[in-house]
Design a protein that fits this description.
By secondary structure, the protein is of the alpha+beta class. It has one domain (2-192): Sandwich (Jelly Rolls). The protein is 47% helix and 28% strand. The strands form two sheets. A four-stranded antiparallel sheet has the order 1-8-3-6, covered by helices on one side. Strands 2-7-4-5 form a four-stranded antiparallel sheet, with no helix packed on it. Helix 1 (2-20) runs antiparallel to helix 3 (156-231). The longest helix has 76 residues, at 156-231. The radius of gyration is 29 Å and the shape is elongated. The relative contact order is 0.16.
């Protein structure tokens, strides 16, 4: 019964963490960058795969983090659209991988938990796509719209460079905030798990101490009773 309740408590904690990290869900970046962040439960003894479509000469960055689960480790495989294995991680808690440049097609991201037969894992991963073709096209369209003579004196290249710099900093801030939320969720899980262990063993130690105290008192009382009977 106690083990069943412990498993139910662990599952409830994982579900709670999944709810708290849903804000990491699917998001769209500004401008040409395409960001996707996702948190999911990876069952014990199973493999989950996701697909990311890219175009020629794009840049793709994949970052993953195990938030909860026994061992805090998973296997990770990144396959190209042609089936070539680009990345292969075994039993790692986190990782960052970059593909530059990409090719046309769907890249496959697989998370493996076959080595764990009892514990499910909660995994957060984020994919950032930087489309250079779309970026250049958007800049040319923006320049074409500037036809007013009052804008001639502005240095368009400087303005564009500053806007690109601000955009990159915003994207980087978004990635850092997403990873900090993932770290916070993992730390919360570890604290709750350690709190349960500390509370359990504290109760066990207290029960043992009370039992020893009762046994000692009973033994002393029996000793005095036997001494009185011998004297009489």
């Amino acid at each position: 019964m106690h083990c069943h309740q412990s498993m139910m408590t662990a599952s409830a904690q994982l579900c709670l963490l999944a709810y708290l990290t849903l804000t990491l869900g699917l998001t769209l970046g500004l401008g040409p960058n395409k960001n996707m962040g996702f948190t999911f439960l990876l069952p014990a003894g199973s493999t989950e795969c996701f697909y990311q479509k890219t175009a020629m000469n794009d840049s793709m960055e994949v970052e993953y983090q195990v938030i909860a689960g026994s061992g805090l480790d998973v296997g990770f495989i990144l396959l190209s659209p042609t089936g070539h294995r680009l990345v292969s991680d075994f039993r790692r808690s986190d990782g960052i991988h970059t593909v530059d440049p990409t090719v046309d097609g769907d890249y496959r991201l697989c998370f493996d938990n076959n080595f764990s037969k009892m514990s499910e894992k909660m995994v957060f991963f984020e994919v950032v796509i930087n489309s250079l073709n779309s970026k250049n096209g958007g800049q040319d369209d923006w320049l074409d719209t500037v036809t007013s003579d009052s804008m001639v004196d502005y240095k368009m290249e400087d303005i564009r460079a500053r806007m690109d710099s601000v955009h990159r900093h915003l994207e980087k801030s978004h990635q850092v905030q997403a990873m900090l939320r993932a770290f916070e969720a993992r730390d919360r899980y570890l604290l709750e798990d350690n709190l349960w262990r500390v509370s359990f063993w504290s109760c066990v130690n207290l029960s043992v101490m009370l039992t020893v105290a009762v046994v000692q008192i009973y033994t002393l009382r029996r000793l005095f009773v036997n001494t009185k009977q011998v004297r009489t």
